[in-house]
Amino acid sequence: MLEHDVRTRRSAEDFPRTEHLAWKIAEIAADPVAVPPETEAMVINRIIDNAAVSAASVIRRPVTVARAQALAHKTHRGAGVFGVDGTVSAEWAAWANGVAVRELDFHDTFLAAEYSHPGDNIPALVAVAQQLGVSGADLIRGIATAYEVQVDLVKGICLHRHKIDHVAHLGPSVAAGLGTMLRLDPETIYAAIGQALHLTTATRQSRKGLISSWKAYAPAWAGKVAIEAVDRAMRGEGSPAPIWEGEDGVIAWMLAGPEHTYRVPLPGPGEPKRAILDTYTKEHSAEYQSQAPIDLARRMRERIGDLDQIATIVLHTSNHTHVVIGTGSNDPQKFDPDASRETLDHSVMYIFAVALQDGTWHHERSYAPERAHRPDTIELWRKISTVEDPEWTRRYHSDDPAEKAFGAKAVVTLKSGETIVDELAVADAHPLGARPFERDQYVGKFADLADGVVEAEEQQRFLNAVQHVSATKSGGLGALNIRVDPRVLDKAPTVPSGIFR
């Protein structure tokens, strides 16, 4: 890997295009380096993972709305919408499928200087691949690039400190991945990256206070915008440049300012793209930094015994966990039983309380209004707080995979004064966890979440198709779309008509 210094440049400076971060990313995307077998295997795992969580979310309201919007844009030569027959224009398929993937906060993650869910790249790439008849091998190449670019940007450039949402790294990564998949030249990819970044910078209010369904739409929007950016760039249109480093660019006015230098790691020429191997999926449908606390709560409940005897619980954790999903956020909504599901999945206090009581976590039952309103849950929930521990923050940012941690230490004080202490650095499903996810676990997650949603024969057809995707010839990627039992779709909420019909 090569590290690149990225900082603001005055318009009068001699700053050749080949030094722009967007150009360097474009060169990586255009590099025809082979995909390592382990990268290919993980790409397949994540396509399965996305299908699993899409099956679980298919009749939720935001997914139903996005699907209705997409189905208003049918075309004979298009891409599939998860769960239904027919094809729509690729950008709308990416929109609908992106919402389905993101809705339950149940797919993969990468955390470093910034947050990310790199699986958000996949719906846009699959949609374009289906519409243009791309081969399975090229789809895998594109996804490998998209993961590489997003992970590298997440390692190098912090957005949340400046209240910019993390999808600002997703737009460029989708554009780069599409560039690889479509075998575009660096100049075209460069223009698409600039447009995609310019149009996907937004504030983090979407993840603050009372969190709405837009949290699921935001990454789908980035994917849709990136597809449109690539289309314009392929037709010869340019973009704002240099988009990161310009005098009025992203770094100068949205991030750390003109005096700051970021260091962004990127593969060198001919270096394989392996970043997907640094990412990790979720066993539980909740914000990633609550994955280890859920497993910790499940482990501690027997030691604690009578939960009514708890006086307080303090979770010692990283700054990120404390301020995003903990009491350091100062969001009273995180203690409100009437809060939205999106808000509750960003409340580690609620999550720890329910996991402690139930000994499990479920993507629907754990968030049900009747579950959140249980008096004993509310009482326990309000006894829980978080504090930042500098050591957990240091480990969160560590470059050593064996030391990097996203967990917490729980200090449970009983009414008797006795304390029970335990800690967990990474979730059980993490590559270094107690039960790491491999192919069997991804397939198992798909089977569990698709049960009662997708018929068994269709499940098996999809699994066979995806596990042989690298051999899929041009025009065959429609096999990655899954048909949901129509009786399930009939249970989706009725939504009002909008502009698109």
UniProtKB/TrEMBL annotation:
Stretches assigned to the MmgE/PrpD N-terminal domain: 19-260
Gene3D superfamilies membership: 2-methylcitrate dehydratase PrpD
Pathways per UniProt: Carbohydrate metabolism; tricarboxylic acid cycle; isocitrate from oxaloacetate: step 1/2; Organic acid metabolism; propanoate degradation
EC number, UniProt record: 4.2.1.3, 4.2.1.79
One Pfam family recorded for the sequence: MmgE_PrpD_N
An individual GO BP term: tricarboxylic acid cycle
Keyword Oxidoreductase: no
Record-annotated MmgE/PrpD C-terminal domain positions: 284-468
GO molecular function, one term: 2-methylcitrate dehydratase activity
Coiled coil: none
Catalytic activity: (2S,3S)-2-methylcitrate = 2-methyl-cis-aconitate + H2O; citrate = D-threo-isocitrate
Keyword tags: Lyase, Tricarboxylic acid cycle
Quaternary structure and interacting proteins, as annotated: Monomer.
Annotated family: Belongs to the PrpD family.
Role summary: Involved in the catabolism of short chain fatty acids (SCFA) via the tricarboxylic acid (TCA)(acetyl degradation route) and via the 2-methylcitrate cycle I (propionate degradation route). Catalyzes the dehydration of 2-methylcitrate (2-MC) to yield the cis isomer of 2-methyl-aconitate. Could also catalyze the dehydration of citrate and the hydration of cis-aconitate.
NCBIfam families in UniProt: PrpD_hiGCgrampos
Protein name: 2-methylcitrate dehydratase
Organism name: Mycolicibacterium porcinum
